[in-house]
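Support request, priority: normal
Reporter: lab tech (M.K.)
Component: structure prediction queue

Hi team, I submitted a job for DUF218 domain-containing protein from Solemya velum gill symbiont yesterday, and the status page still shows it as pending. I've pasted the exact input below so you can check whether something in the sequence is tripping the parser. The sequence length should be 276 residues. Please let me know if I need to resubmit or if it's stuck on your end.
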Amino acid sequence: MNFELIRALETLLLPPSGLITLGIIGLLFGFTRSGRQLLGISMLLLYLMSTTYVSAWMNSRLTYQYPAVDPALLKSENAPQALVVLGGGYYGESVEYGNTAIGPFFAERIRYAAWLAKQTELPIIVSSGKADAPAAVRILKEEYGIENVTQESNSWTTDDNARYINQLIKEKEIGKIGVITHAWHMPRAMWSLESHNIDATALPMGLLASMPAFDDYNSWLPSMAALVRSRNVMHEFFGLIWYQLRGMGETLVDIFSFSAEDTTAETDWQNPIKQD
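Reply from support: The job had stalled in the queue. We restarted it manually and it finished. Here are the results:
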């Protein structure tokens, strides 16, 4: 499917646009009971997805199976031989820097990759598009002082990442990699890598330390940050379904198997560095 078409469909279907569209349809048919119900449901969902508690709960459905990793474990006998950071978009040309600017998600991944590289002395492979991959390599070298960096710059999708990474690591005779991306993106990334028979260790970042308290009114105040998190989860959920329909992966990640007692505010359920 055409990349621009995919992005257009995402904009139309994912929140907030998808819910706003449903609300407008409900408003146009407000003279009917079904129209009023559609308007009410769309506005309610838009509010809930904008709250800290609901967005964190949705996020937990994807991220619980890939906790953070202690860097010391990356020095063990069966540790990855390279760190692979997956692209996360770019903003075109930056006025203030006078060069290509990578997006905020990509910048967060790059920072974590640089930190892990300094902890482990492992080389970094950047996997992204023709514009942002070179920009990420430049940032790693010039701003973080990481010299051992290579790139593949042909990827537009997560499946592309896996396919081109597979070619590159075979050329470099790398047996195992550590893949760096946001926790909410990790299930789809790992499915893609496994479908291409790549031995990978998940190195997620951007995890939540704990669930917001259910009885805290701040957990129910809407915010743009919470809505963005909900949107990312919905994007990945539909992405997993799409990949399964294309025959990638044997089964979907079981996003409904996470028990309620695992999402308490007192539990460091996404911080394995603090776990036994």
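The longest helix spans residues 224-245. Confidence is low (pLDDT under 50) at residues 255-276. Let us know if anything else looks off. Ticket resolved.
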